[in-house]
Specification:
The complex is a heterodimer of chains A (418) and B (151).
Chain A (H helix, E strand, L loop, with lengths): L9 H5 L8 E2 L3 E2 L1 E2 L10 H14 L9 H20 L8 E4 L2 H14 L11 E5 L8 H10 L2 E5 L12 H4 L4 E7 L11 H11 L2 E5 L11 H4 L3 E5 L10 E5 L1 H6 L10 E4 L4 E3 L13 H17 L1 H19 L5 E4 L10 E6 L4 H10 L2 E2 L1 E3 L4 H6 L5 E5 L6 H18 L1
Parallel strand pairs in A: 3-15, 5-6, 5-7, 7-8, 8-9
Antiparallel strand pairs in A: 1-2, 4-10, 9-10, 11-12, 13-14, 14-17, 16-17
Helix pairs in contact in A: 2-10, 3-10, 4-5, 11-14, 12-14
Chain B lengths: L3 H8 L11 E7 L4 E10 L2 E10 L2 H14 L4 H15 L9 H7 L12 H21 L12
Antiparallel strand pairs in B: 1-2, 2-3
Helix pairs in contact in B: 1-2, 2-5, 3-5
The chains are: A alpha/beta (418), B alpha+beta (151).
Amino acid sequence: MTQLPGLLDTEAIRKDFPALDRVIHDGKKLVYLDNAATSQKPRQVLDALTEYYERHNANVHRGVHVLAEEATALYEGARDKVAEFINAPSRDEVIFTKNASESLNLVANMLGWADEPYKVDHETEIVITEMEHHSNIVPWQLLSQRTGAKLKWFGLTDDGRLDLSNINEVITEQTKIVSFVLVSNILGTHNPVEAIVRRAQEVGALVLIDASQAAPHMPLDVQALQADFVAFTGHKMCGPTGIGVLWGRQELLEDLPPFLGGGEMIETVSMSSSTYAPAPHKFEAGTPPIAQAVGLGAAVDYLNAIGMENIARHEQAITEYAVKRLLEVPDLRIIGPVTAEDRGAAISFTLGDIHPHDVGQVLDEQGIAVRVGHHCARPVCLRYGIPATTRASFYLYSTPAEVDALVDGLEHVRNFFG
Amino acid sequence: MYQEVILDHYKHPHGRGLRDGDAEVHHVNPTCGDEITLRVKYDGTRIADVSYEGQGCSISQASASVLNDLLVGKDLAEAQKIQGAFLELMQSKGRIEPDDAMEEILEDAVAFAGVSKYPARVKCALLSWMAWKDATAQALGESEPAERKSA
């Protein structure tokens, strides 16, 4: 077995993840390399979900009975855990949503309905990048169409990084919001936050960071990032689906208007008007995803027990090894940085003229789960002149042996279609 | 699912390339980015030619090649019968085991029976067939939009 410096004890960790034990297609051991899409769930998270439903299930807030108080304490306890996990100055800055897409849409809609100085209108500009997930493109296209604001973006360099050479022309005095991804889900690129934030602050623009591919993999400190909003999702970091997070600076959450109206987000309601609860409740209309928040809290505990620094080091080692081994495969072209420097553990590639769907299907027949397609980042495929990519993405339980299995699998694909 | 006959059509497609036609359509499979541009040429109700260009996975491209084999030279009614049989096979979720009667109608296309077990790939196999149906409707005078997504 290949030993690399910095690896976690994956043998012990993998015992926590029942799905990793699956044997598929007549005796093939599952090699799960689709972690950028969603992670597998440890027993600790599954148990937390079951225990919540079996013992504490009730609607949160305002209930005066035991179960309601327990459910509320668990739900709000999860908020405390998430706040600490991202080093938020206050727990009230953590808004639970259903996923990162909803978090990003929420910010776009807060700004869409805001008064000055936040108001986005035909005289203002919105800035994104060409490597965004569709969830950080389409909400801004919608906002731009509805308000007349101009949508601008940073382009990409040939080696898969942001082209910031024209940063002063892209981010201008007219810019109201700059929204960009911390780690790209398709290229794997880890973007330079500081340069972008500095320029945004110069012109008084707000900064929203999509940390969906960062929060599961490395320490996330919203204060160090100096952003105004940070969005991420629970299911990529060992949590359940249906729970996402939007962190926002307190004064902004106080100033900006709510988007969804309903129960929980109000202070008083009369037939003609309402006043709103303070954040975060102002942005959490209706019964929230309670069990899912509790599950996310358990995921945070799980990741903390292993240590985010240790997870980052493990993935750095695996990524370095995977890049090196993949580049040995003839006709394989990595789409994105070809070194492990400033990159995450998602690696996209093409394999000669073989269509990624065929690559993915033949890998699946060997028990290897990868993702194929445009990964909800079609502009990136257009930029590099390819219809789609195959993407292998790693996590805390990935092993060098799984990288080897992928490389062997790709050899088989080449022979099959060769 | 990758029958030898599918790989053969993929590597050596029949009738590929765009030629003169009465109508042209462009269909895409948005989930995986398969694309096809397809033209039909009718001689009355007889299919004189189906020509196409495209890019995509082996299933989508091989299916277009098989379509060309099966439909060119046929009368429209016969072609619609073949298209119906192929659609039924692809929607069978692997439950139809092609018999001699089916093979009589579908010839090489029975090789796609295995694809019907993979929901994500059925659209790849049907892409060119939906494009042909659309192009035919246009060529024979029914008004249909020139570009739309295959369902």
